[in-house]
Amino acid sequence: MSRLDRITTDPAICHGQPTVRGLRYPVESLLELLASGMSIDEIISDHPDLERDDLLAALEFGALVSGQRRVVPLGAA
User: Fold this and answer.
1) Would you put residue 18 in left (φ > 0), alpha (ψ -120 to 50) or beta?
2) Pick the CATH number of 4-65 from 3.30.565.10, 3.20.20.70, 3.10.290.10, 1.10.10.10
3) Tens digit of pLDDT for each residue in 43-63?
């Protein structure tokens, strides 16, 4: 079940960056919050206009745009 229909772009909102449901939450910012260690519940608590499916859509979008590139942390051999 894809949630990508929650991801929208509009040149008048956040300079056309992908956002969630036309709200002023860029997908990139939501991914940064998740990557920092915040849980979905913590993010929703801080931003009550977001829904769990919005954050899952951001994750799905991030996985999709990352393609098949391999990421190797610096210092890893």
Assistant:
1) beta
2) 1.10.10.10
3) 999 999 999 999 999 999 999
